[in-house]
Predict the 3D structure of the following.
Amino acid sequence: MHPLTLDIAHLLAGSLLLVSFMMLYQDRLYALINVYALQAVVLALSVAWQAYAQDAPHLYITAAIALLFKAVLIPVVLHRMIVKLGIHREVETVVGIGPTMLLGMGLVALSMVVMLRTEAPSPVLASTRRSPGLMRPDATVPA
């Protein structure tokens, strides 16, 4: 495996997380649908990269389906519905943007803690844990 394979996978995963936070920030319906389509493109790229990295051609089909339906078809239909119904307004929020972002960051941190605590020791998983910032204090980086 090429050394950049995992780096590109981590870049795509981080991009997916960033775009998800962009969705939390949007308060206009039209812009929210555009960010939803962007998230679908990043998701399809991530799945396609995993198909390449793992030599799994069936994942290319999954990436194509996600790209076709989630990035193209659903946003186009939603945009047409907004125009047809004349719904050009802001999304009503229960709490402000600041608390929403803090809650999102807290949930991401919680998911990382849960994932690291429940992860079974495995030589396959150990080779992917090269980021010292995400490792448990008692974990060691394999050679």
Notes: Residues 94-143 form one domain. The first helix runs from residue 4 to 25. The mean pLDDT is 83.
